[in-house]
Amino acid sequence: MVIRKSAVDSEMIAFDERFGLATDYNTGEEFVMLHDALTKGAVAMYIPQVLVQHPPVSSGKIYNKTVAFEKGAMIARVYDWRWPFINVAFAVRKYKEYRHSAGFFAFLIDFFMISFKLMFKVFISIKIIKF
Questions:
Q1: pLDDT tens figures, 12-50
Q2: Are 74 and 28 in contact, with CB atoms under 8 Å apart?
Q3: What is the pLDDT of residue 121?
Q4: What single DSSP character describes residue 18?
Q5: Contact, 37 vs 16, CB < 8 A?
Q6: Cβ proximity of 63 and 101 under 8 Å
Q7: Per-residue pLDDT for 90 more than 60?
């Protein structure tokens, strides 16, 4: 992802410091930032050119209760009241990736039960601290 400095300077783009590695929720910083920027009127485009290549390691392939907790916070932050529907869509879409570590309903229940309290807390704090 490449971002113009002028977009950062104009405060169109800002990172929610609660998301990302070594924070409360170790995932979702790019997703949250991009959502906020697009909501504020930023324009995004896809340019199929590799600028940097990282080793093929992805935290997006790990599924456990901690990940459910963190993804739940990210989904609540971005989708507001629609989070339960997005949780179900996420569980269906990612089923092939977590099916060996948890069944569909077990994962969905963990996703909802572990994340519900946190989602409510994030949702309320976002309404108070408007980014």
A1: 777 888 888 888 888 888 899 889 888 888 888 888 888
A2: yes
A3: 67
A4: T
A5: no
A6: yes
A7: yes
Q: Which two tokens stand for residue 94?
A: 């990612």
Token duo for residue 42: 């930023």
Fill in the DSSP letter of residue 64: S
48-62: b or e for each residue (b if 16 or more CB lie within 10 Å)?
A: eeeeeeeeeeeeeee
- The residue assigned the tokens 């400095």 is 5
Q: Average pLDDT in the 60-85 region? A: 77
**CA atoms of 34 and 2, how far apart (whole Å):** 11
Enumerate residues 6+ apart whose C-beta is below 8 A from 69: 25, 114, 115, 118
CA distances from 64 to 53, 70, 98 (A): 27, 10, 9
Greater pLDDT, 103 or 57: 103
Spatial distance between the Cα atoms of 31 and 74, rounded to a whole number of angstroms:
8
Which pLDDT score is estimated for 53?
82
Residue type (1 letter), 75: I
Three-state secondary structure call for residue 84: helix
- To which residue do tokens 């408007």 refer? 130
